[in-house]
Every structure is written in structure tokens, then in C-alpha cells.
Design goal:
The chain has 165 residues and is α+β, with helices and mostly antiparallel strands. The protein has helices at 47-59, 65-68, 82-94, 117-128, 146-149; strands at 3-16, 27-28, 31-32, 37-39, 97-107, 135-140, 153-164.
Length: 165
């Protein structure tokens, strides 16, 4: 097959950063973003890299991130999510595929991703091995509705097209 589409999704609760709370430093797309809250998760909690990893794995019909890197395995505790993405990309390249394009929507009230957007896109292009014009990153709020809108969670949706090269 010459093209495959995948969808990835992730959601993490946000809490005050340790030592005040259980939140980890706020990392999005591999870029540290200043914020007083951070994701609660087994790994570093990078919801964007998690959703991208799942989108790539999903496009290939592979097991999802939770199956490959279960949260009950101590090896993944606090792990940099780049490791998970690198494994998905290795599997993708083994199949002779590359990222055709990727569209991501990050939903959170705070922090605003605008100030970090250029750095996140540049890092994603580096990780994915593609030019930035193949990547789109949007920041949205949840209009103060539910946990995301109240600033207690971050949600990410990603759609990617993998193509043969």
C-alpha cells in the first residue's frame, strides 16, 4: 500500500509540579514549556509525542504505545517520550514508509503553546526527519468546559499520512 492514515490521541491530568504536586515538568513535542502544572504519567507525560507515536503505529496496524511500553513496566518510569517515537519511526522506516504529513491539535487552557510553537515544530521536524512544511500544529482551548477547560488536563489529537518512499 502506498499511503496509510493514522490517528493518535492522548490525555494527561495536569497537577502542580513536584515537589508541590505529582506533576512532571511540562514537556510538549520534546520541548520544555514553562508552566506551574505538569502532566501526571508513567513516562515524562509528553502528550504530543505520545499521540504522534500512536498515529504512526496506528497507520501501520501496529500495537499501540501502551502495548509496546506498558505503564506497569518500571523501565518506562520517567522515560523521555522521544524513545517511544524513535521505536515507532524505526518500524515505519523498516516498512519503507515516511511521514507524508502530520496535523496535530493540542487542547489546553494553559499554557498557551503559541510562544513555543516554532521550537516544537522544529523539534518535530528533526525527530520525524521531514521538513516543517509537512507538519501542522494548532493550539486550542476547551472554553473552560470540563477538566481540560478547567486547566486540569491536556488533550492531543494527531492525524498523520504515511507514504511509501
Amino acid at each position: 500500500m502506498s499511503a496509510r492514515i493514522g490517528h493518535g490521541y492522548d490525555l494527561h491530568r495536569l497537577e502542580p509540579v513536584a515537589p508541590v504536586g505529582a506533576g512532571r515538568p511540562f514537556v510538549l513535542g520534546g520541548v520544555r514549556v514553562p508552566h506551574d502544572r505538569g502532566p501526571v504519567g508513567h513516562s515524562d507525560g509528553d502528550a504530543l509525542l505520545h499521540a504522534i507515536t500512536d498515529a504512526i503505529l496506528g497507520a501501520m496496524g501496529e500495537p499501540d504505545i501502551g502495548q509496546l511500553f506498558p505503564d506497569n513496566d518500571a523501565r518506562w518510569e520517567g522515560q523521555d517520550s522521544e524513545l517511544f517515537l524513535v521505536e515507532a519511526l524505526r518500524r515505519m522506516r523498516e516498512r519503507g514508509l515516511r511521514v507524508g504529513n502530520l496535523d496535530a491539535t493540542v487542547i489546553c487552557e494553559r499554557p498557551k503553546i503559541g510562544p513555543a510553537k516554532a521550537a516544537i515544530r522544529a523539534n518535530l521536524a528533526r525527530l520525524l526527519g521531514c521538513s516543517e512544511d509537512r507538519l501542522n500544529l494548532k493550539g486550542k482551548t476547551h472554553e473552560k468546559v470540563d477538566a481540560v477547560g478547567e486547566g486540569r488536563a491536556i488533550e492531543v489529537h494527531v492525524v498523520t499520512l504515511l507514504e511509501a518512499h
